[in-house]
Design a protein that fits this description.
Largest sheet: none
CATH architecture: Up-down Bundle
Order of helices and strands: HHHHH
Strand content: under 5%
Radius of gyration: 25 Å
Structural class: mainly alpha
Distance between the termini: 63 Å
Length: 153
């Protein structure tokens, strides 16, 4: 019979509690998979296509374009966070970095042009802003597609 004040009993109880905690730890979600990153990048590709359609529309809806640009930024930030925590081969992650950097830069430029579009009043200014948006969007699509090619293969 073990005495209640027996130090051995206290050690056994403490070990039991630690085992329970480990069980909880093992049930925690694991790092995102590469396929999850791929799905997110494909979703970004779709959002870029939708923005392209909006830019081709006549008349332009500057507010809707800016809202789509905000949605693109949120999706891109989600991708960056997922890539940082995902279980991705370091070589693939290294190949992604330049595409991420350039996509991020183009996304910022797209945001600036979307704000300029909202403030444009003259038809010539609207067309110039539309043209600039299309250029940045085209470049952004190339970098995001390169990201998809790296992650989704």
């Amino acid at each position: 019979m073990i005495n209640k004040t027996d130090p051995f009993r206290e050690d056994v109880e403490e070990i039991g509690q630690k085992i329970e905690l480990l069980g909880d730890f093992e049930s925690m979600p694991s790092a995102p998979s590469v396929s999850h990153v791929c799905d997110q990048v494909k979703a970004l590709v779709r959002l870029l296509s939708e923005l392209s359609v909006s830019l081709a529309a006549d008349p332009l809806d500057a507010h809707a374009i800016q809202q789509q640009q905000f949605q693109l930024q949120r999706q891109f930030q989600d991708i960056l966070a997922t890539v940082a925590s995902a279980d991705i081969d370091p070589a693939v992650e290294q190949q992604l970095r330049p595409h991420q950097t350039e996509a991020h830069r183009r996304l910022r430029l797209l945001g600036i042009e979307a704000m300029r579009l909202r403030t444009a009043k003259q038809p010539a200014t609207l067309e110039r802003q539309r043209s600039q948006l299309q250029i940045h969007l085209s470049e952004l699509q190339k970098f995001v597609q390169a990201m998809a090619d790296q992650v989704c293969t």
